[in-house]
Amino acid sequence: MINDLKRLALFAEVVRAGSLTAAARRLRISTSAVSQQLRTLEQAHGVTLLHRSTRKLSLTDAGARFAEHCETMLVAAERAEQQLTLARDAPEGELRVAAPVGFARHVAPALAPLLAAHPALRLMVVVDDAMIDLIASRIDLAFRGGRLPSSTAVARLICHFEWVICASPSYIARATPPVTAADLLTHQWIGLPRDGQHMILDLHGPAGQRESLRVEPRITSNNQYTLHQMCMAGLGIAVCIRPDVDDDLRAGRLVTVCDWRPAPGPVYAVTPQREGQPAKVRHAIEAMRDYLRTVPGASM
Q1: Sheet holding 163-167, edge to edge
Q2: Of 82-96, 179-193, 219-233, 277-291, where does mean pLDDT reach its minimum?
Q3: DSSP state at residue 151
Q4: Which of helix, strand or coil describes residue 173?
Q5: Positive or negative, the Cα torsion across 58, 61, 67, 72?
Q6: Between β-strands 219-220 and 154-161, what pairing exists: parallel, antiparallel or unpaired?
Q7: CATH topology of domain 2-89
Q8: Is 163-262 in the same CATH topology as 93-152+273-299?
Q9: How far apart are CA 24 and CA 290, in angstroms?
Q10: What 8-state DSSP symbol labels residue 148?
Q11: What does the DSSP 8-state code read for residue 176?
């Protein structure tokens, strides 16, 4: 079947070119090879397609009807190839993006310029804090933070997010503000659930000191945005991603509680495969990187 399709395409090229020699030049093969393929095609189907002469060729009735279908096939193949080129060079089609709840707020401002510049590009965003299967969910691009599980997916580091230890002014007003790292152990904590019901905080001090604390949160959630809301409600102190709470810190709805803080956390762009990235994915990653350069608390 594959060889038949090749011979049909060759026949269409011969008809387009008007001679075996011209077709051979277009196909970058010898004239004898073109002639041999045509003979094989005719013999396989028991039909004469061309009347050959030294100067030109003419189609038989059967060849003329056959040429119409071969030309349609060749045009369809060329269009298919053009679509691959467009996928490689121009963002178009549906871009399926996955992001955790906290990071999803960055997707719209980051990708808005890309969508404005490429009207043929559509966007579908899956917001989920779980590590969803990119292939099963047909995700083109996922944004994930922190330590990644082992996977066949390809992760590209795009920035680091600063972490800060926050509380609401109402909480600080009724508690003793922590000064040292050890003071943090006396406070009520809000945090992500961990095995063993405790968090390990590796903290850096203002003078380069390092401390590792074992903290048992009273309130837990698997959603960073929910932790943020609980912290603002005055239920305790929490480790927050600086870009998520920057507006609240500036407005005074949250305050940083001490000069100790965890090391910045990595943020990755994750794709199902390394090779053959379509233009929509490459451009989306670069658009996100450009946007993150403007975000307080993000470092490249």
Answers
A1: 238-241, 163-167, 255-256
A2: 82-96
A3: -
A4: helix
A5: positive
A6: unpaired
A7: Arc Repressor Mutant, subunit A (1.10.10)
A8: yes
A9: 48
A10: P
A11: P
